[in-house]
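Checklist before submission:
- one chain only
- standard amino acids only
- sequence pasted in full

Submission:
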Amino acid sequence: MFWNLVRYEFKNVNKWYLALYGAVLALSALIGVQASSLKSIDTPDQQMIMLVFLALVFGGLIITLSISTLILIIRRFKGSVYDRQGYLTLTLPVSEHQIILSKLLGAFIWSLASSLVFILSIYIILVLTGANFLDIFSLEYLFKFYMDSFWLSVISYILSTISGILCIYLAISIGQLFNEYRTALAVLAYIVIQTVLGFVGLNLRIDIDYNWMISFEIVKDLILSAAFYLGTYYILKNKVNLQ
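Returned file contents:
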């Protein structure tokens, strides 16, 4: 039944999100082609205008991609758990753990897809513009100084993403405890949580070296993920207040 819930997460996602990924990659190719044509522009003013235009277009793409992924994560959890669809979800022969984990897995995959699309779009732009970044930052340098920490960075990314998603779930769950202004209170709960974490993080900052910093972030995200998950689970199991 768990995997049926996971498949449902993808089956009911609007195809608009997939179209957005395709549009980002297609427009990245267009930006790369346009950027490569800057070599033929002799007037500095024209070159600067074109560069500003390309930067604005790409920035808009990244913002759109980030916001759409965030909205997708929020809608898939709030809509199918705490709104009217929640009546159906909570009557299924599944546990609260399965509901949360299926939502989390779906949200993580969409977040990962967005990150990969972002990285691929940058790669497309660099390749089409003929940028010599690999000459500036040689692969030998990157492998020597960063590949030792590659897997730590991957683990940190995974846990950071999971922690961020679960924080959103907890904020939504806190907001639904109230009868009115649920969305506003969920946003407020998220802001308060992030403010407290930011303040604590400033006082616990680790600057010994990169590996120590990443290891600290991994431990921190593990603790936060567990706390956010347990808080969401408790509310979903004991304090559900469906509209």
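Reviewer check: Residues 44-81 form the longest helix (38 residues).
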